Amino acid sequence: MSSLFRSEEMCLVQLFFQTESAHNCISELGHLGLVQFKDLNPSATAFQRRFVKEVKKCEEMERILRYLEKEMVKSNIEIAATKEKEMVPCARDVLELESTFEKLEQELREINRNHATLRQNLIELMDIDSLLRMTEDFFEEVLEINFSFFSFNFIILVCIHILNYFVAGVIKQERFPAFEKVLWRLFHGNFVLRHAEIQATEELQARGAVKKDVFIIFVQGDHVREKIRKVCEGFRASLYSCPKTLYERKQMSNSVMTQMEDLRMILRRTEEYRAGVLTRAAEHVQEWGSKVKKMKAIYYTLNLCNIDITQKLIVAEIWCPVSDLAVVQNALIKGSEQSGSSVTPVLNRIQTQQTPPTFNRTNTFTEGFQAIIDAYGVGTYQEINPAPCTIVTFPFLFAVMFGDCGHGLVMTLFAVWVISQAESLRKWKNEVTDVVIGGRYIILLMGMFSIYTGLIYNDCFSKSFNIFGSSWCVRPMFHPHGPWQYVLYYHHLQLNPSVPGVYSGDPYVFGIDPVWNIASNKLSFLNSFKMKMSVILGVSHMLFGVTLSLVNFVHFRKFQDIFLQFVPQLIFMLSLFGYLIFLILYKWCITLRSETAPSILLLFINMMLFDYQSEHVLLYGGQVWIHALLKAALYSWLYSVFQIMTDAVMLYRKGFRSSWKDNVICFLLQVSMGDIFVYQAIHTVEFCLGCISNTASYLRLWALSLAHAELSEVLWRMVLQVGLKISSGMGSLMLVVLFAAFAVLTVTILLVMEGLSAFLHALRLHWVEFQNKFYEGSGYKFTPLSFDSLLKTQQ
């Protein structure tokens, strides 16, 4: 139980083991995951450490593994899962593993270079083939023309074609408009340009080719042709030689087709060989990655240790739980036996004044709630852990704001589905799914508590259940001898509990009576009920926090704080807010007419102002004397605390000594009397104002509960109820559409947005209003060497 409600008791241990057994010993401690190593070389930089070269080698192997995994993902090769617990390779096996990685990387890079070269050659051949087909089509088009219908200039251009003054090539499609514009500006139209887009085949798309255009330019003379070649080079166009005769062009086209077929076969063989290399590596890449990460963690841990002058003994200091010392000892012995060492590692527990790390054991159910606490601040060593209390209070306060058994049922079913599909959802590897999986049990409890509070509110999608039968009856109001005339003069039927038979005298069995769901003053009733309920829950929650501070004081033996801090705080809260709860509960338990019932707010104000002139402001007999006694107890206790402090300081100045007074005035040794009074005054004002503001902060339970209920009722009335009232022929279709809209709005607004809002408000109530009463959160987290955590965080 102590480990559940309080962090583990930790101890500082000094380890001595031989250098040859260090690798195996630390490996066993890493599999155990219960030891945190201290840095014995805090002034040394990363490059001054003993095993920095080994760490660099591991980082280089990690880089190669990332490269291999990237290539496997690119080739759609499935990576085999790692084994449950593979052995960490010893130091002599690291060289063999490093050599294997280097050979794999070199081979794969060479394959990729050759593949890229072959692919580029194939794309060039395909460009040449497209160019030949385009030029052949253009030549055939020219030969079929009847020249008697054309001008002299066109005939001259045809002659230029006959003389074969042309430039042919391929250019990227995005560069062609600028290329054409430059040609027109340089040569003023004294050329003939033809171009066509290369059709993107499936093969070109698979090879990663970009969109290109083939072009052919007919010019006059070699001088102009050379200028055009330079323009093509500026636009990075690929120029290819085109034969002059039809026979030569056909021969070249056949040669290109043959080369393309050969290149396709070579590329196919290259890809198959590359896939085989990656497939064989994929069977071991996860195992290799785990080994490299573990080796890197071991060498990093060795850098935290000291080595004696003889280089034969390693000294380390570790934090570990006291209850696990025997387990740690057995792990070290096992590691020493694996290495064949004849000397057993030595553990020496040492005393220290250093603050140990905070270690709270968790499981899959409690780790989400512990994460909520640690997000506020890691607990101080050995102070009480609020996580077990949060397991109940957090989902309950959430449910108070989210009280709807229908919405709670949907949330519960979603949480059950996430729990059942957790392993498959982890494969998605994105932030949203990680958060949902990590908090799946929080969502489950929030949904279950929402069902409970929804039944208390008698609210399910804004409708009420009448399971046990209402305690109110309308029929007696219409009895011949009853006040039936009252109904004739008012628009609303008012149920008078004084009329026999209207109220049964017994309240509804569980929750709110369903008659309030159809009442015109439903909102006023729920407003008053939920506001008072929020105050009761808030004050009870804060009193529970103050009570937990007593547990801390007793554990740390701060008995003076019990009398000088806990008791005054408890008296202050019980005298004011505890009495407020009593007034609320007492007013609920007695029968009063609404016009004569005193306001609790006025009662509180009059109690502080001693104003009791009006008779109707009293709720019960003897109320004035009770108020006087409460204030007298409060003021007398504050005065007694002040007097105790004053006496303690005076006795110390007179030289009086005793054991309990030494504990009381240990804080007063270094400060003056004025500093003490200023500090206490600030602390007292802060606590008093904080209690008032914190109590008001709990009214968010009332506000969000009302908002959630009203939004749910708005969706019912404006969406689903409209579809249920449609009686035309298309009523069924409209009902389906409106129900779909109702479901979508319910999930997005009421479940997601309202659920997130209620979650954040419940989080604030725990962090600020509850935990500041007892929780310091000034510790640092226990971070052991754990291979399981290392592999989980780096996946």
Account of the protein in words:
62% of the residues lie in helices and 6% in strands. The protein is of the alpha+beta class and 795 residues long. A hairpin with a 5-residue loop joins β7 and β8. α14 runs antiparallel to α17 and α19 runs antiparallel to α25.
How is the topology of this model organized?
Layout: H1 2-5, E1 10-18, H2 19-32, E2 36-37, H3 52-74, H4 91-143, H5 152-162, E3 166-172, H6 176-187, E4 192-197, H7 202-206, E5 212-218, H8 222-234, E6 238-239, H9 246-282, H10 285-302, E7 306-307, E8 313-321, H11 325-339, E9 346-350, H12 367-376, H13 387-401, H14 405-420, H15 422-426, H16 431-438, H17 440-457, H18 485-488, H19 522-555, H20 559-589, H21 600-609, H22 623-653, H23 659-664, H24 673-697, H25 700-725, H26 731-770, H27 787-793
Antiparallel strand pairs: 1-8, 1-9, 2-8, 3-5, 3-6, 4-5, 7-8
